[in-house]
Amino acid sequence: MPLSYDDLINCRAEELHFHYSDATMLLYNLSIGLGRDPTNRQELPFIYEQPALCVVPAAAAILGGGGAALLRNTDINWAMMLHAEQRLKIHRELPPCAKLIGSTRVSEVADKGQNKGALITIEMVVRLASGEPLYTSENVIFARGNGGCGGPPTSAHTTHRLPKRKPDTVHLSETRPDQALLYRILGDRTPLHADPTAARNAGFPRPILHGLCSYGIACRAILAEVCNYDPRLISEFDARFTSPVYPGERIHTDIWVDGNIVSFRCRIEQRSKIAINYGRCKLAI
Prior knowledge:
The protein is an alpha+beta fold.
């Protein structure tokens, strides 16, 4: 049975209980490249829990699976699914470990048409078990095999446009050949990140890096270049995934700073590809 707009837009779940430990946050920070230089004292609070572990704000995107379980019982063709965009609003600094309560819903469906796919936005609102708001995430998936489900043809979300001037700074991040194998321990065991055959079947010459790993690398770049490694300065972090990254490649993050708005994109210079585009980070200043 084909997907129905009415069925999708009515998908929701309340009072979802989940948690994370400091071990999860340590693994996340390491898996996006923090701690590569053991003498970098600015990165030490992200990889060593004394006196208290710092958490990269982008880590919120992985908690609770980003709400994707909401669509588990729908007829989405998961083999044709891509992560299109990720948006975050951080309401307070993420603690090193926490018990959380979330609610999730499909907040938007943009049907591009038969054989063109649909954009499905999953909103997740999360609070601490004690009741304080923690973050709100929007996980936008591109269901390439499920166009024609009905609903409006375009998204109401406005794309952030990058400045036309040259970047104010460029941050270089080296990725490891085994980085996707490390990152997948956090929960995303999709085969195309580990199995060469699965990657080829999906149209890639070899396994690719998780989009959310690239997203975390971009957040780390802005923490280093703009925030002096203070995660409390990042209140929003939005990006669109436009091209895959292969583990072992270098990521150049172009950064523009205009007041409290930081624009960014991630480039793979050796292949002339933009992996993340239209990035927008709002600073809490």
